[in-house]
Amino acid sequence: MPLKVNLKKLRECWDNLAPEYDYKNSPKWFWANPEKWANEIKRRIRGFSTVLDVGCGAGALAIPLSKEFDVVALDFSKKMLFQLKQRKEEFGTDVEIVCADAHNIPFKDGSFDVVLCRFALWPLPEPRKAIEEMVRVARNKIIIVEGDWHKSKVTLRHKIIGKLLFKIHFLIYRIRTGRNPTKHFEEMKKYHKSETSMERIKEWFEQCGVKIREVDYSVKERVSTRRFKVLRFITGYEEKFFVLVCEKVLGSKERKAGVATGAQ
């Protein structure tokens, strides 16, 4: 399927899902705490200043990070960015908003100290190309949060109890909000075909000459809410996701340019 068709359909899916990613959508954050997610990023980028959030959605990371860093939030869903704009004004945060495609990031090489991307690789038609773009515009670090969904454990307890409880949860959500995000996620599955496992992403970064500094699967325990931990215990549901921290290794020309311009 041609790339342009994929992006058009994906944009429609994400536009439909914009309300689900609202920074103040408490049912969405039943599963994980956005402030805790921001803290996970903050402790990894201390000492840096400029941050590009690729696939920022409605600003779950961009808004809290902007309290300490100069954040540019990039997404190709105009409705997601409109939601972010509303919350940005409400909270009085200084986030620069850019509507663009992760496959073609509209910034010069080395424009940002840090580039991060949280759960925004898996839907892309060409995630490898997006990674190449992130490496290009990063000056120091690239941080990826993604899921090894194929490694998630489906226990007997989850088959018997978990699926029923999750169906009840989403039914209540539909009744309360009048929305059905599951429908849009199911539709989206038709448009993403690439594997975005940790091994594959790590391989892509290494091919770009980027050093892998950290792979952390324990982040789930720190960002999950107590309610979700209890639900996981009852249902036996386990999913694997990780934080991958990379460091860009500068070539001799880049190092000289950094010295000449006073870049850190």
Chain-wise SSE layout:
Blueprint: H1 3-17, H2 34-42, E1 50-54, H3 62-65, E2 70-75, H4 78-91, E3 95-99, E4 112-118, H5 127-137, E5 138-147, E6 153-154, H6 156-177, H7 181-188, H8 198-207, E7 210-216, H9 219-223, H10 226-235, E8 237-238, E9 241-248, H11 252-261
Helix pairs in contact: 1-7, 6-10
Describe the 3D structure.
The structure is a single chain. The chain is an alpha/beta fold and 264 residues long. The protein contains eleven helices and nine strands. The protein has helices at 3-17, 34-42, 62-65, 78-91, 127-137, 156-177, 181-188, 198-207, 219-223, 226-235, 252-261; strands at residues 50-54, 70-75, 95-99, 112-118, 138-147, 153-154, 210-216, 237-238, 241-248. A seven-stranded mixed beta sheet has the order 3-2-1-4-5-9-7, sandwiched between helices. A two-stranded antiparallel ribbon has the order 6-8. Helix 4 (78-91) links the parallel strand 2 and strand 3 (95-99). Helix 1 packs antiparallel against helix 7 and helix 6 crosses helix 10 (226-235). The longest helix has 22 residues, at 156-177. The radius of gyration is 19 Å and the shape is globular. The model is unreliable at 252-264 (pLDDT under 50).
Distance between the termini: 43 Å
Summarize the biggest pleated sheet.
7 strands, mixed
Helix content: 40-55%
Helix and strand content put the structural class at alpha/beta
Number of helices: 11
* Morphology call: globular
Give the SSE string: HHEHEHEEHEEHHHEHHEEH
Essential attributes:
264 residues; seven-stranded mixed β-sheet; two-stranded antiparallel sheet; 11 helices; globular
